[in-house]
């Protein structure tokens, strides 16, 4: 197999199946694989479409590059799709041999504070081998339900406000963050990340701040500003971020565009008052209008132990479509 990535021993029996690196010019097969389930495979497809150049070994496949059985984005973090069988999608899976080959490839690339994302079955197959090779995780979240937003007539925000008219200000005020508001957005993003992941992302350098700046610049960060007291912010008056959400992934798949929301956050003093529900509903409507079209899919994923967040999403009519697992290193 010309150009295949050679396996490296991890203190386990060395299998013969190897990975093939894929260049941007040969990414069509990986995108075809992702199109089998655009919602669940969006994280991988988004990486391929966002980056026009990547290094050798950053994208790898098992099977023929034109029709792979499995694929992965393998840098300091790993996104893996297709290791486990998915009969309902016609995917045989790359199995244990493929998991071993990918583990050997990914282990020297994974970095501290990196992560591994995929379906629970894919991540479990891979982690079993990485753990046997001596890797340890900081935290593992094995069941993160992936939810899809409904698309009711008139929009999701109208439905939310009809139930609680007093929250009309939150729905009407939710919009794309403006570049000049980045100094407000960054602290809210850092608070969300620290609460969700467990460490301050600013402490590890400037990459997180650059990511937030990119989201704002691309029109992919949505915010609701208030006066700090749960009332609409007035021009020239004090303003704080009451709610934020980012469009972490967008993919214009062959059968329709899909988006994945990330970084959902409501300021702690406003939680339990319905503000986050109305603002999220408005953000879903805006993402459809501005990014994926009225028929586009809008999804997010949530930790199974986060009961308040799950209750919020289900109250808006989100329904489950599979699950992710994340291992944080």
TrEMBL record:
One of its GO terms (molecular function) is acyltransferase activity, transferring groups other than amino-acyl groups. The keyword Transferase applies. Transmembrane segments: none annotated. Residues 197-329 form the N-acetyltransferase domain. InterPro entries: Acyl_CoA_acyltransferase (IPR016181), DUF4081 (IPR025289), GNAT_dom (IPR000182). Keywords: Transferase. Gene3D superfamilies: 3.40.630.30. SUPFAM superfamilies: Acyl-CoA N-acyltransferases (Nat) (SSF55729). This is GNAT family N-acetyltransferase. It comes from Actinomyces gaoshouyii. The lineage of its organism: Bacteria, Bacillati, Actinomycetota, Actinomycetes, Actinomycetales.
């Amino acid at each position: 197999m010309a150009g295949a990535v050679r396996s490296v021993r991890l203190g386990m029996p060395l299998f013969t199946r190897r990975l093939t690196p894929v260049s941007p010019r040969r990414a069509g097969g990986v995108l075809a694989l992702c199109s089998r389930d655009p919602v669940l495979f969006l994280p991988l497809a988004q990486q391929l479409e966002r980056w026009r150049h990547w290094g050798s070994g950053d994208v790898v496949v098992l099977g023929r590059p034109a029709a792979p059985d499995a694929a992965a984005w393998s840098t300091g973090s790993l996104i893996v799709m297709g290791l486990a069988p998915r009969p309902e999608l016609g995917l045989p899976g790359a199995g244990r041999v493929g998991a071993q080959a990918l583990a050997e490839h990914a282990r020297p690339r994974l970095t501290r504070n990196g992560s591994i994302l995929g379906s629970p079955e894919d991540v479990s197959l891979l982690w079993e081998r990485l753990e046997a090779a001596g890797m340890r995780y900081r935290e593992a979240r094995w069941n993160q339900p992936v939810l899809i937003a409904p698309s009711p007539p008139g929009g999701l925000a109208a439905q939310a406000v009809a139930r609680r008219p007093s929250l009309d200000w939150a729905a009407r005020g939710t919009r794309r963050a403006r570049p000049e508001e980045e100094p407000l957005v960054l602290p809210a993003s850092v608070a969300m990340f620290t609460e969700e992941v467990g460490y301050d992302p600013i402490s590890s350098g400037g990459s997180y701040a650059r990511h937030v700046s990119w989201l704002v610049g691309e029109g992919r960060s949505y915010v609701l500003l208030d006066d700090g007291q749960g009332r609409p912010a007035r021009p020239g008056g004090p303003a704080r971020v009451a709610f934020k959400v980012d469009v972490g992934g967008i993919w214009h798949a062959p059968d329709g565009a899909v988006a994945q929301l990330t970084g959902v956050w409501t300021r702690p003093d406003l939680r339990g008052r319905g503000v986050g529900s109305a603002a999220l509903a408005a953000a879903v409507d805006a993402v459809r209008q501005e990014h994926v079209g009225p028929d586009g899919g809008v999804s997010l994923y949530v930790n199974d132990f986060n009961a308040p967040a799950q209750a919020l999403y289900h109250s808006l009519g989100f329904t489950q479509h599979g699950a992710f697992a994340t291992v944080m290193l």
